Amino acid sequence: MAAEKPTVTPMMAQFLEIKSRHRDALLFYRMGDFYEMFFDDAIAASEALDIALTKRGKHDGDDIPMCGVPHHAAEGYFLTLIRKGFRVAVCEQLESPAEAKKRGAKSVVKRDVVRLVTPGTLTEDSLLEARRHNFLAAYAEVRDDGALAWIDISTGAFHVMPCPLVRLAPELARLNPSELIVSEANISNWAELVPDFEAATTPLSRSSFDSTSATKRLQELFGVSSLDAFAPFGLAEISAMGAIVDYLEITQKGKLPLVRPPLRENVGGAMQIDAATRRNLEITHALSGGREGSLIAAMDRTVTAAGGRLLERRLSSPSRDVNLIQTRLDAIEFTLTNKQQSGTLRDMLRKVPDMERSLSRLGLDRAGPRDLTAIRNGLSQARTIEQTLNSSQVPTLFQQNMALLQGHDAIIDLLDAAVISEPPLLSRDGGFIAQGYDEELDECRKLRDQGRSVIASLQAQYAQTTGIQSLKVKHNNVLGYFIETTATHAEKMLSAPHSETFIHRQTTANQVRFTTLELSELETKIHNAGGRALEIEKRIFEVLKTEIIKEAPRIAEASKALAEFDLTTALADLAVGENWVRPMVDSGRSFDIQGGRHPVVERALRKQGQSQFVANDCRLTDGKDGAAIWLLTGPNMAGKSTFLRQNALIALIAQMGSFVPATSAHIGIVSQLFSRVGASDDLARGRSTFMVEMVETAAILNQADDRALVILDEIGRGTATYDGLSIAWATLEHLHDVNKSRALFATHYHEMTALSDKLSGADNATVAVKEWEGDVIFLHEVIKGKADRSYGVQVAKLAGLPAAVVERARIVLDALEKGDSKTKTSPKAIIDDLPLFSATPTPMPLQVEKGPSASDEKLAEILPDELTPREALQLLYELKALSGV
């Protein structure tokens, strides 16, 4: 007899069929009030979410693993899974169980995936950081051309730029996308192409990158016959943009977000900053990984989410356009000179909600009633702000943006009339449409909430019509609502003129029961009033959503303008609060900072209640060869790295269009910013600290041009002394002679200070210190000149090295320095001759502090004025004996 073939339940067969189409995602399978996962999905999800793993039925004779989460709390679970590298396919019920039963008693409810949740396609506020963009990017190559496109579907911002492969890593570091789409043809060697990219990488088929298909997708999306209306895009740019649109169609299941027309970025429009420099300077993220301790945390005084995101974009992409920078600085200056008006403007901006993200959710059909009020309140504030500012006196930047705040009266009035001031979060909760907006809705609500009073009113009407005051309208579960009167009055109701109105239903021993068409209709309305009211509200919601989407491009522009006002007033507030000044930015090569300060360190010192930050000057002057370099020497802990970083940050802050932390600043446009500061290894790729240092230095020397600003700290310290010195020496010469860059070069190799005599564009500077009783006091003051020593032993003592180690180091250092000065030979020759390196030396005894000695105690007892000569002589003998001499 043949073995019985294992059976699969219809529901499980449906799960397996849907799962087969989404193998790379966890399938959240909707069952009533829960999302359930089965098989391997359940095992993976239970471990990632730390929830119970159970079982449900059998498959091929084995228990089916199962776990589940409540559908109303699913967003929190999505976020956890996304952060752990998973993707989620959300499978919803497309019909009710009652509808399924119409097809047969055992029919399975129709289900299908309505959305793929991936890192780059999040829109919910609970899954996103309000002040950060969440970019989805795509890279495409067509022949020898490359392009990078990116979109934030939570705001609709869509950008593209030509991008050769060599520029890809720095651009990804600038954008920091959550997810990157690449052709499956390149996925195998992607880690080698962009080694520092840590976000999710998603391969798509080559057809998604086909430029012909991409053109059609983009034309359909934007409703145009030609993309030339936006910009003269190359094939690679069209390919990258088309891949993004294709991926959105896949993940959103046809419900595309409200995408703004693509903006083509100019490759040379922004200061170029590579990934290592961004990391070293801690522009948007501290080295610890969080926001606290970064430059953006020290500068962010914006009061709106959109303003915070704009600040992040500006800091990530400082401009190289002098006119644009001056326009932004003019706006800040105007804000500073009109403090009262600016204060009022800032107070109004605090009431502006995040319209950009509300618009996106409305377009994706994920919005709620509060998104309607966000649009209404944001546009209302925009109108108030526009009326407050005097367009004839404001600067150019304000004038440009004020025009975008006008013309929204119709949508404001519509939403004012339709939506209550504080609606619920979800449309299914109802109660968000204002009273008086829709007559049918008002009637349903009245019946739902005041059914008894409506029935009582009808009862009074019937009693008056018939003249029977004892007439009652009652209800039971069999008849529903009915009219009841005594048998005595029944004949009156059955005779004309009432017989046409009242319909006999039932006669009991003492009562006769009637109904009317009006009462039957009212009963039906009361019974369905709650559900009907909710249906009407949902219908009105859809109408309002449609009206908003019609105005979406103009609303998005208004939101963009409000963000500009927010950032400008925030930077003005920062300038006043932190005593920052307007920089002079031009197209020259000047770099003259007077009284410069590090904004992050200064803020940290203030928080800790420590001493004030010591401001320093930095003036890089071109030599006859075109370079301008400061060779900075001095001890560790003296502030060399802080000085290097602060000047790089001042240049960056100035070119984003902000005042700067200094008493004055004159900066010629910086085309590239390079930083090689700090030490770290990369064990995952087999790179030592020194190898990482050399790779980063090589990138700088191979790319820096004569408009770059380069800061280098301790080049060559990761290897032997002479190797390191020779590498540092050659690096400085290359920067001077070949790159001709403006640079700050910090080193402990004080032998290199002699280069200032050879290189016309190199000057020596040092960090001043003061020695006191063998210790070093850091003054944190940068002055012209050079250091002849590094004070390493003193710093080691401050760090807490054992006293014996510090003392031994002093002896070794003294021997090396004396030997060198006497013999004029190399340190290696001196080391070979010194016995202290030929055998292991005897450790120095620890110096332990003790109490007063016996001789000290004896001396304390002596009263010299009372001693005779003989007694004094005797005391000398006793003290000699006590001291052991």
TrEMBL record:
InterPro entries: DNA_mismatch_repair_MutS, DNA_mismatch_repair_MutS-lik_N, DNA_mismatch_repair_MutS/MSH, DNA_mismatch_repair_MutS_C, DNA_mismatch_repair_MutS_clamp, DNA_mismatch_repair_MutS_core, DNA_mismatch_repair_MutS_N, DNA_mismatch_repair_MutS_sf. CDD domains: ABC_MutS1 (cd03284). GO terms for biological process: mismatch repair. The keyword Signal does not apply. Residues 708-724 form the DNA mismatch repair proteins mutS family domain. The gene is mutS. Keywords: ATP-binding, DNA damage, DNA repair, DNA-binding, Nucleotide-binding. This is DNA mismatch repair protein MutS. Pfam families: MutS_I (PF01624), MutS_II (PF05188), MutS_III (PF05192), MutS_IV (PF05190), MutS_V (PF00488). One of its GO terms (cellular component) is cytosol. The keyword Hydrolase does not apply. Belongs to the DNA mismatch repair MutS family.
